[in-house]
Design a protein that fits this description.
The complex is a heterodimer. Chain A has a single domain (29-56, 72-297), classed as MetI-like (MetI-like fold, Orthogonal Bundle), CATH 1.10.3720. Helix content of chain A is 71%, strand content 0%. Chain A has helices spanning 3-10, 24-35, 37-59, 90-96, 98-126, 128-143, 146-157, 161-188, 191-198, 203-211, 216-239, 251-258, 269-297. In chain B, the strands form 4 sheets. Chain B has an 8-stranded mixed β-sheet, sandwiched between helices. In chain B, strands 18-19-20-15-21-22-24-23 form an 8-stranded mixed β-sheet, with helices on both faces. Classes of the chains: A mainly alpha, B alpha/beta. Chains A and B meet through helix 1 and helix 9 of A and strand 18, helix 16, helix 18 and helix 19 of B.
Chain lengths: 298, 681
């Protein structure tokens, strides 16, 4: 009688099917990302600006705040991107301007995604009255004109990096919560959630340790999308005067300070390079987002 | 009308596959999926292609209609349909081939129909593509739907697919497939998603149409019973190679390939029960996709294999008639050693003792769009330690609701559950750790039952911590013990579920369920997502664990052979009401409730013959508006009369331990059902 041999043979995997400690799926995902042109170009663009946000202090040719008599000079060898109305070197200001955006936007995104994920987990997991109540509030917030709320809040609280982060982060919470909730609803029906309940797990454990790891893909994608919006939000609020304050070399602030000169028709360089900087960063973030999306969706 | 594909008169075959090799390109490498597949389907013949998942059945079907996924291609060999080479067709000819000569019916009818187009328009479109005018097309559609025995065609044509039941949807798909009067109809697991009574109806329909229209059919299925019922000839596919072929009767009664022999032994049938012995299983795994197999494809798992089997590919041996086997030792294939272990010592169930678990008048009403849906109505039964209560019924019968109410996952709206004599809280939140430990579950789908982000060790250790209070070295040791008891090798502890096969995942799920030494484990269709050879191993494991630990099972399944094998007693549910409950043999051998009788007769068996089909008319009524009186009266083959419509029969004990809910007296049922058996004998 060969009970053991029978069943022992029954569990022997075919050759090459031996699972590794590291997740094969994760490595496959990274391999796909490395092959995605969209993702790589996005990374290069974003990486470029992150580099300058950190390194500009030491590497730029001029102090971005130093005012000189050489005002409104067109691009030349001395000033590659020309100078502004205070005689400041625009090339140095564009490179140094990455810092303020990349300080505020990612932190605001992090706050919004974290808070949104928590709200989404709670509403999606519990459902019922909890879901109804919170989701209606979320809907109500989404119906308000966000820029107005932001302007009001920033006026009331005073503008600083911290208030900017908090305001943009809170504004992003509802849309993130909605996305996460939809994903949780799908996940919640899977039997492993019931298995966890049947061994007496409490709701926070099930949400954070069982469900959250399974929805990290869509959340990362959502975060990159939100980051693009956050960059726009910082730029928009700054342009209106509620965001980053002078004399910072912030891109949007540069545009705000100089756009009236455009009507004179000749001083295009005072606005163009800062505008291109914002555009390339946002495009870079969106490309990263698209690349991630394609891989996560597979 | 475009020119139809030339019907080459001299070809006797509707389909011919000649040494067909199909490969999938995976990470730059060609992986072979079909290995020299040669077969033919004669005109007007139904040919069955049978095999387990991953053997290449569906790939063959897709190759025939030239619809392989983008990374797949036919590397060599030939396909001819109606004598015409199907591989060299241009785009236009290919379209004509698909619209005129070949039709396909897939497993999931819901996905085959466009959800936003009304049935009538959808069916008519097939005729319009075929060249009919708009009005003619509608007329044809009407006739086509009548042909597939849809009652009230007019109203069905006005409906959208989601408003039809699964069986109706599949009829519509079949009507569309037959619209062009195809030379070849490919049916790929057409009834796998349907309930057994509905499945039986659809199969009857296909058989009737096939003999009436003389359509050639390629019937793909994993179910040998269905193949036996539907097909004159059968081919057994393993790892992309046809390893045995012949008349269905001959192959199933006198198999000549060890794989076929093993496969047939895996299936619990002919009333075999757990105390008769364990099921046979086919050891080992399918070879990997595209693995180099210089010898016999089955050699690695074959107990008869000798050295030459691993190096030399067996030729197609003719065994008389059209019977073919690709085995060097086909003449002694049936001497394949049985893989049955030592007989189990199943201790008898002591029903004189107090029951382990009892539920009384258990009911659940769901609110759905303002309507009350009575998913479960007044169910009462008891389960004793060490026994298995099988729970059968079609979808929507309340099986799962009953199980979930017992587990505390849904709060019952009436009645309650007692464990060892003490009342259980209605929901998990109120139950003690000991109560939770006592009741566990093995789910149907092992993919969704295990958290795909957690390695096996984490799943097991966490469960041991919560249910057994074990930590550290003690937990590690217990985990290894548990894995041994479900025959899982220790090295899988660090694997994540996606690296495991379905059978291995189910073993992990079983080990998890047993972590806290449960008293009762709910098994919710634990083998229906698995292949038959794996199913046998899992059933054996469950029985072994029961013998060892005296655990009770509440075993839900739609597969009556499986239920009969594992159950001591069986409860039959219909529309949320317990219709019959009794010892397994009594429920199966009768006299039984008319619904049980119909369920049993609906199942096509491998042994063939057996019972006459009792047809159940129509679909299962909605639980939101159940029929008056006896809920089964609308479909009952033994309908008595007015009393059935007005008065619900009580569940009464008709003989010792055997209860039934029917107005017909037991002696009358005995007489009716015995007469039927006589007629058949």
């Amino acid at each position: 009688m060969s009970a053991m041999t029978d069943d022992a043979a029954g569990i022997e995997p075919a050759a090459g099917f031996i699972p590794k400690e590291a997740s094969i799926a994760r490595r496959e995902m990274l391999r796909q990302l490395a092959r995605s042109k969209t993702f790589l170009i996005g990374c290069v663009l974003v990486g470029f600006w992150v580099f300058w946000a950190i390194a500009s202090t030491w590497l730029i040719p001029h102090d971005p705040l130093e005012q000189t008599d050489a005002i409104l000079q067109s691009p030349s060898f001395a000033h590659w991107f020309g100078t502004d109305q205070f005689g400041r070197d625009i090339f140095s200001r564009v490179l140094a301007g990455a810092a303020s955006t990349l300080r505020v936007a990612p932190l605001a995104t992090l706050l919004g995604v974290t808070a949104g994920t928590m709200v989404g987990l709670v509403t999606g997991y519990f459902g019922g009255i909890v879901d109804e109540t919170i989701s209606r509030i979320v809907d109500a917030v989404l119906a308000l004109p966000l820029i107005v709320i932001a302007v009001v809040a920033l006026t009331a609280l005073g503008s600083s990096d911290v208030t900017l982060i908090v305001v943009i982060g809170l504004i992003f919470t509802p849309p993130v919560a909605r996305t996460v909730r939809a994903t949780v609803l799908g996940e919640r029906q899977l039997d492993y959630v019931q298995a966890a309940q049947l061994r007496g797990e409490r709701a926070p454990y099930i949400m954070l340790s069982e469900i959250l790891p399974n929805i990290s893909g869509p959340i990362v994608v959502e975060a990159t999308v939100r980051l693009g919006y956050a960059i726009f939000a910082v730029a928009g609020l700054t342009f209106l005067g509620f965001g980053v304050q002078p004399p910072s070399p912030d891109w949007s602030l540069q545009i705000a300070e100089n756009y009236t000169l455009l009507s004179a028709g000749t001083y295009w360089w005072t606005v163009l390079f800062a505008g291109l900087a914002i555009a390339t960063l946002v495009i870079g973030v969106n490309l990263v987002s698209d690349g991630l999306q394609q891989v996560v969706d597979q | 009308m475009s020119e139809p594909l030339a019907d080459v008169g001299e070809s006797p075959h509707a389909l011919e596959l000649d040494k067909l090799d199909v490969v999938y390109k995976v990470r730059g490498n060609d992986r072979q999926v079909l290995r020299g597949l040669t077969l033919h389907v004669r005109r007007g013949e139904a040919y069955g292609l049978v095999g387990e998942s991953g053997c290449g059945k569906s790939t063959a079907a897709l190759a025939i209609v030239n619809y392989l996924p983008r990374n797949g291609r036919v590397r060599s060999g030939g396909i001819s349909i109606n004598g015409r080479d199907a591989l060299t067709l241009g785009r236009g000819d290919l379209r004509r081939l698909r619209s005129k000569s070949v039709s396909m019916v897939y497993q999931n009818p819901g996905a085959a129909l466009n959800p936003s187009i009304r049935i009538g328009k959808q069916v008519a479109e097939v005729f319009r593509v075929g060249g009919a005018g708009t009005e003619d097309a509608v007329e044809h559609a009407h006739q086509a739907l009548e042909r597939v025995q849809i009652a009230d065609v007019g109203s069905v044509m006005e409906r959208y697919p989601h408003q039809l039941s699964g069986g109706m949807q599949q009829r519509v798909v079949i009507a569309m497939a037959l619209a062009a009067d195809p030379a070849l109809l490919i049916l790929d697991e057409p009834t796998t998603g349907l309930d057994s009574t509905v499945e039986a109806e659809v199969l009857d329909l296909v058989a009737a149409l096939q003999s009436e229209l003389r359509t050639s059919v390629l019937f793909i299925s994993h179910n040998l019973g269905i193949i036996r019922k539907m097909c004159a000839r059968v081919g057994v596919l393993y790892a992309g190679r046809l390893i045995e072929e012949g008349e269905t009767e001959t192959v199933l009664n006198d198999p000549r390939h060890p794989y076929t022999v093993g496969l047939l032994r895996c299936v619990p049938r002919g009333g075999v029960r757990k105390d008769h012995g364990r099921l046979d299983s086919v050891p080992g795994f399918l070879p990997n996709l595209g693995e180099e197999l210089p010898g016999c494809v089955f050699a690695a798992r074959c107990a008869l294999a000798e050295a030459r089997c691993h190096t030399e590919e067996p030729a197609a041996h003719e065994i008389g008639g059209s019977h073919m086997s690709r085995c060097h030792f086909h003449e002694r294939a049936q001497a394949l050693p049985r893989e049955i272990g030592a007989d189990l010592d199943l201790p008898p169930v002591d029903r004189a003792a107090d029951a382990l678990l009892r539920f009384d008048d258990l009911g659940k009403v769901f609110k759905q769009q303002g309507q009350d849906v009575h998913a479960l109505v007044g169910a009462s039964a008891a389960i004793w330690s060490g026994e298995t209560l099988g729970l059968v019924g079609e979808s929507g019968s309340g099986k799962t609701t009953l199980a979930r109410a017992v587990l505390g996952l849904v709060e019952p709206t009436s009645g309650g559950v007692t464990l060892d004599g003490s009342e259980l809280a209605p929901t998990l939140g109120g139950r003690s750790a000991a109560d939770m430990r006592a009741l566990q579950i093995v789910f149907q789908n092992p993919d969704s039952a295990l958290n795909r982000r957690h390695p096996v060790r984490r799943i097991m250790r966490r469960t041991l911590k919560k249910l057994a209070g074990l930590k550290g070295a003690a937990a590690e040791q217990r985990m290894i013990e548990l894995m041994k008891s479900v025959r899982l090798a220790e090295r899988y502890v660090s694997a994540r579920p996606n690296a495991l096969s379905g059978g291995l995942k189910q073993r992990v799920a079983i080990a998890r369920a047993f972590a806290g030494d449960p008293k009762l484990v709910v098994c919710d269709e634990p083998t229906s997502a698995l292949d038959v050879s794996v199913q046998a191993a899992i059933l054996n494991l469950l029985v072994e664990l029961q013998a060892e630990k005296q655990v009770a099972y509440l075993f839900i399944s739609h597969d009556l052979g499986v239920v009969r094998y594992i159950s001591d007693r069986i409860a039959v549910l219909y529309l949320g009401r317990l219709q019959e409950i009794g010892p397994a043999d009594v429920v199966f051998d009768g006299p039984h409730h008319p619904y049980t009788e119909a369920l049993l007769s609906a199942v096509p068996t491998i042994d063939g013959g057996g019972r006459d089909r009792i047809k159940l008319e129509g679909d299962i009524p909605s639980a939101a508006s159940p029929p008056s009186g006896c809920v089964f009266h609308t479909r009952c083959p033994r309908f008595l009369g007015e009393i059935c419509k007005t008065e619900e029969p009580p569940l009464v004990e008709v003989e010792p331990n055997h209860s039934m809910r029917c107005h017909i007296p037991i002696e009358e049922l005995r007489r009716l059902q015995a007469r039927k058996a006589d007629v058949h004998a």
